[in-house]
Description:
There is one protein chain. The protein contains five helices and 16 strands. It is α+β, with helices and mostly antiparallel strands. Strands 1, 2, 3, 4, 5, 6, 7 and 8 form an eight-stranded antiparallel beta sheet that branches. A hairpin with a 5-residue loop joins strand 6 and strand 7. The chain is globular and about 60 Å long. The site of one 2-acetamido-2-deoxy-beta-D-glucopyranose has 2 residues, from loops.
Amino acid sequence: xxxxxxxxxxxxxxxxxxxxxxxxxxxxxxxxxxxxxxxxxxxxxxxxxxxxxxxxxxxxxxxxxxxxxxxxxxxxxxxxxxxxxxxxxxxxxxxxxxxxxxxxxxxxxxxxxxxxxxxxxxxxxxxxxxxxxxxxxxxxxxxxxxxxxxxxxxxxxxxxxxxxxxxxxxxxxxxxxxxxxxxxxxxxxxxxxxxxxxxxxxxxxxxxxxxxxxxxxxxxxxxxxxxxxxxxxxxxxxxxxxxxxxxxxxxxxxxxxxxxxxxxxxxxxxxxxxxxxxxxxxxxxxxxxxxxxxxxxxxxxxxxxxxxxxxxxxxxxxxxxxxxxxxxxxxxxxxxxxxxxxxx
Length: 344
Ligand SMILES: *[C@@H]1O[C@H](CO)[C@@H](O)[C@H](O)[C@H]1NC(C)=O
Ligand SMILES: *[C@@H]1O[C@H](CO)[C@@H](O)[C@H](O)[C@H]1NC(C)=O
């Protein structure tokens, strides 16, 4: 009878944990393919990959990606046509034509179109790297169309978002506070196999409240590494020597690509959500330290990036490794008690 009660509470506990984890921090990806021009019927040649992170609050998403075949040298700040240089999630679930792609996707309580100012810049080869966070009022992302617009606002690329459940593509780092810091983060890095492209994002807790970075129009985070979240060259969190410096290959990328990567704001509780994509010149990020920096640039929290290959099913259920290990620990304890109870 005792054993039954213990088992029952264990099952309840498990279900509670799974329900909470199912508040979801899903990662979605889409492969962008060319859309033919409506007027010339010519294939746009636009291809790419995008990722979208669900922040877990039901209203916020982070999105980013890498798109090629665009017009060269476009500037987000001067690309002012309606939808010019836009990168948006659309409400439709097919890329077939503009009707099936739908319009910009957002739901109540969001009433103003959150996508109007979301734009990319392209380099001299027509390559664009972009990432941002948007409050869209929903996290119902599966199957939605991600649309890339040209300078004049026309639609030139489209792909459908599907949840990424491939644990060979998602590295995870649950970072813990360094020294006296209590800052924790649940961060994920999506890799694009065979490339040096990566998107890093996640949720951070216990930061300084009400930060607004200079990048988001505020005054904060302007110190070196201020509000940064970076992959470091080291593979151990013990101290700054074992953590190493920013992880990138200076022979491939000229400027440290991590310099402006991090969170751009925190709420009144010191919580942040971030997502940024970059090109590092490094293909193998597994085992490296991921570090969250404070507003003044000091190192606050560290964890090691790992493929969650040992907890595949847990990830499929939306449960993270730390919850799983806690549950396994509790489960073993209960089993021990049950064994005692049945043998005495
Ligand atoms: C898109 O395709 C559907 C189905 O063929 C059609 O009904 C609709 O009119 C098309 N929309 C546009 C804008 O061409
Ligand atoms: C950062 O911002 C603060 C507050 O606005 C200012 O006092 C400081 O000079 C700035 N530092 C740099 C390096 O821009």
